[in-house]
Amino acid sequence: MQRTILSSLLTAVTAMLASFSVQAAETIKIAYTDPLSGPFAQVGDQNLKQMQYVIDYINSKGGALGRKFELVSFDNKSQPAEALIALKTIADQNIPIVMQCSGSNISAALIDAIEKQNDRNPDNRVVYINCGAVATELTNEKCSFWHFRFDAHVGMKAAMLVRALAPEDKKVYLLNQDYLFGQSVQRDVKTFLAKYRPDVQMVGDELIPLGKVKDFSPYITKIKASGAQALITGNWGPDMSLLIKAGMEAGLNVKYYTLYAHLGGGPTAIGPAGDGKVYAIQAFNENIAVETGNTELEKWTSEFRASHDFDFYGAGFRTIFEFVQAAFNKAGSTDPVKIAEALEGMTMTDMAGHEVTMRKDDHQLLSEYFAAIFTKGVKYDSERTGLGWKTITTVEANDLAQPTTCQMKRPSS
Fold first, then answer.
1. Hey, what's the torsion of the CAs at 402, 403, 405, 409, to 10 degrees?
2. Distance of alpha carbon 165 from alpha carbon 170, whole angstroms
3. Nearest to 394 by CA among 365, 367, 370
4. pLDDT value for 412
5. CA dihedral defined by 247, 287, 355, 357, rounded to 10 degrees?
6. How far, in whole angstroms, is CA 215 from its chain's centroid?
7. What's the pTM?
8. Which of 53, 50, 42 is nearest to 78 (CA)?
9. I want to staple 360 with a disulfide (CB 3.0 to 4.6 A). Which of 78, 239, 331, 345 is the partner?
10. For the purposes of burial, counting CB atoms within 10 Å of the CB of 10, is it exposed (0-12), middle (13-18) or buried (19 or more)?
11. In 214-368, where do the E strands start and end?
C-alpha cells in the first residue's frame, strides 16, 4: 500500500515538473501587424527587423516570467480590413498583445474592434501597443483602456516642428496625406503656427491621396511658384521619399520640415543636395550616442549597423519591450487586464538615459524628443549617403507633454 501511494505521488510530481518545464519553455507571443507588402512595405519590414533586434536583447536579459518573447507578424497591407482579419486570428490564438505602428486609420479601427472584442470575450482579451500611429485624437476623444501609445502624438510633434522653424522662414507650404494622420498634422500645425509664429504666412495647403501619387513634380512646381521658404510635411513612406526626391531633382530652394524624413528611404531620397536643408522631428538618431558620450548606446547602434543596411531609429521599440517585460513580471501573469494595469503609470529610464512615463490618464507615453538636421560632418551617416542626422534640439518629456481630453472607460472586471 505504501509503495502504491509513493508511486502515485512520484507520478504526480513528475507530471507537475513536466508541466512546469513545458510552460517555462513556451514563448510569450506578441503579435505585430503592419504593411509587409505593397507601397509601404519598406517601413513595416524595417520596423520588424528592429523589433527582432530588440527582442533578442530582451530575451538575453531573461525575457519575462522565465520565458522568452516571440514576435508573430501579420501583413495588413496598409488596409484597416486586413488589420481586423489579423486581429481575429490573434484573438483566436490567445496572443495577449498586438502591436501596430503605421497608419492612424488602422489604429482607430483596431481601437474600436479591440473594445468590442474585449467586452464580448472577457476571457480572451487583447492589449494594443501602438508604436507609431500618432493622430492626436487616439489618446484624446478615442482613448481606450486597452490602447497604449508609445510615440509622441501629432500635437506634440507639430509644436516641436513649428518651434524649429528658422526665424527667417516666414512663408510656408503645407503638404500632407489625406487621411486621419495627415489631417491631424494639417490641423495641429496650423494651431501651433498661430500660437508660436503669427508672423508666418501660409502660401499653400494641400492633402494628397495616401500612397497613390507616383509623380510629385506637379506639386513641386506649385510649391516653387508659391514663393514658399519652407515645406512642412508629415508624409511618410514613399509619399515622403518621392516628394523629397522630386524636390531635390528640381532644385526646389526650400527648407524641408518633416516628421519622417529619417525613416527608411528618406536619406537616400534626400541625397547630397539636401545637405543642411532637411529637418526631422524624431525619437532617435544614431548620432545621439556620440553627441551625449553614451558609449553603451553607441555600442548598441554600431552593432545594429554592422548587420543591417539602414539606420536604427526605433529607440521607442526598445522602450516598448522594456515596459512590456516589466509589466509581465509585475503582473506575474499573461492576463491582459493585469498587464494593462501594470503598464499604467509605469516610469523607467530609456536607452538614451531619459526618464519616460506611461501616463495613466490617457495611456500616452511621455518621453524626450529630438529635432535634427541632415548634414555632413557627423560620425554616423544614413544609408551610405555620407550625410547623417545632427541633433539641434532636445525636448524633455515634461516640456513635450500636452493636456489630454481623454475620458477613459475602465473594465468592470
1. 90
2. 9
3. 370
4. 77
5. 30
6. 27
7. 0.92
8. 42
9. 345
10. exposed
11. 230-233, 255-258, 278-282, 347-349, 355-358, 365-366
Q: Could you read off the pLDDT of 120-145 as tens digits, one per residue? A: 999 999 999 999 999 999 999 999 99
Cell readout for 64 is: 519575462
Cell 495588413 -> residue: 76
User: Nearest Cα to 343, choosing from 327, 332, 359, 356?
Assistant: 327
Whole-number Cα distances in Å, 357 to 50, 150, 351, 354: 22, 10, 14, 10
Report the 10 Å Cβ neighbour count for 222.
15
C-alpha cell at 252: 526646389
Distance CA 117, CA 84 (A): 11
277, three cell numbers: 536643408
250: cell is 528640381
- pLDDT, one tens digit per residue, over 237-276 is 999 999 999 999 999 999 999 999 999 999 999 999 999 9
* Residue for grid cell 554616423: 380
Name the residue among 69, 148, 78, 137 with its Cα closest to residue 114.
148
Tabulate helix, strand, coil % of the chain (nearest 5).
45, 20, 35
Q: What Cα–Cα distance (Å) separates residue 321 from each residue in 72, 143, 350, 397? A: 14, 21, 11, 19
**Rounded Cα–Cα distance for residues 365 and 360 (Å):** 9
Order of strands across the sheet that contains 365-366: 347-349, 355-358, 365-366
Can you tell me the distance from the alpha carbon of 238 to that of 264, in angstroms, rounded to the nearest whole number? 9
What crossing angle do the helices spanning 41-60 and 315-331 adopt, rounded to 10°? Answer: 50
Low-confidence spans in the chain with pLDDT less than 50: 13-24
